[in-house]
Amino acid sequence: MTPDAVIPPAGRPSTAMAPDCHGDVCITCSDVAVAVRIRELVAGRLAVVDTDSGPEEVSVALVDAAAGDVVLVHAKEAIAVVEKAR
């Protein structure tokens, strides 16, 4: 939220406030899920996946996925398996 945001006496934020987005992470602006292929599973229910920007580590704690599967990722969390490896 912007630092100029005013909290009314009732304790509810004003509806006029807008999120302040800076850097790579913004929970309001990053509402897009991306399909990526799992390169390898690593410890801690994590996986290395191939992205347009290169390999990235994401959580696979919510899905039953294996290397080679294509998963839908949102906010570095795999939320669905969209294609199983053959």
UniProtKB/TrEMBL annotation:
SUPFAM superfamilies according to UniProt: HupF/HypC-like
Report the sequence similarity comment from the record: Belongs to the HupF/HypC family.
Q: What is this protein called?
A: HypC/HybG/HupF family hydrogenase formation chaperone
